[in-house]
Amino acid sequence: MSEGQAMNAIALDLGGVWRRFPQGAGTLDVLRGVNLTIARGEIVALVGPSGAGKSTLLHIAGLLEPPTEGRVMIGGQQANGLDDAQRTLLRRAHLGFVYQYHHLLPEFSAVENVILPQMIAGVSRGAARKRAVSLLESMGLAARIDHRPGQLSGGEQQRVAICRALANKPALLLADEPTGNLDPNTSETVFAELLRLVRDEGLSALIATHNPELARRMDRMVTLRDGLVCEVSPA
Ligand SMILES: Nc1ncnc2c1ncn2[C@@H]1O[C@H](COP(=O)(O)OP(=O)(O)OP(=O)(O)O)[C@@H](O)[C@H]1O
């Protein structure tokens, strides 16, 4: 295996990541030297008490904000020091996001919401539609592809958001409480479908959750406490 291929076997590499916010007259160190590596194909749960820094870590891994200090590598590529345009390209090429709230475009249908990011990435409309329909069908939404988000249930909306996040086959899916907005039964079902799809597609994921049952279904559980990864246990 060449060095390039070996590096690409790593979806995410965070080294000595600090995140410091101003607080009153002083500062708040939310992350204090986090080290975390996620291999391609690995699904990792990010857990920890409220305020531990899970969302902050996901923002840094997602190149949405820079660390105060430390290394961020995505798919073997260095993210530190890139300008906005380069960061956007790296994000589009390698990352997918699912949030607690779906953030779908309300005036577009389900299938159009999944087609759009592919067309932005340069995929032809025909190929993008084919993949979008296939993803939506695999999430049980065959009869809903032409519905707008407002005509879908909360669970269906979140399924569409998951299909959209995976449309460009990101090396790494970042998800912040992806089913936290749903009732417990729907959350359970949608979460199982999310994991199945990520595994079927051979992708990696870092998923923040407060639900220990859901966390245990992943390959590895990373606990954040006091700004550090304090536990990496087999799930
Ligand atoms: N932009 C900011 N400015 C100042 N403080 C911030 C900022 N963003 C986050 N924080 C602080 O960082 C800490 C960690 O927040 P974060 O949202 O990352 O925690 P979390 O583990 O995701 O919490 P939860 O489980 O409740 O979502 C909190 O104390 C929060 O107030």
UniProtKB/TrEMBL annotation:
Signal peptide region: none
Gene Ontology biological process terms, A to Z: lipoprotein localization to outer membrane; protein localization to outer membrane
Annotated Gene Ontology cellular component terms: membrane protein complex; plasma membrane
SMART domains: AAA
Annotated ranges, domain ABC transporter: 12-235
Domain of life: Bacteria
UniProt keyword terms in alphabetical order: ATP-binding, Cell inner membrane, Cell membrane, Lipoprotein, Membrane, Nucleotide-binding, Transport
Pfam families noted in UniProt: ABC_tran
GO MF term (any one): ATP binding
CDD domains named in the record: ABC_MJ0796_LolCDE_FtsE
Family: Belongs to the ABC transporter superfamily. Macrolide exporter (TC 3.A.1.122) family.
Name the UniProt record assigns to this protein: Lipoprotein-releasing system ATP-binding protein
Species lineage: Bacteria, Pseudomonadati, Pseudomonadota, Alphaproteobacteria, Rhodospirillales
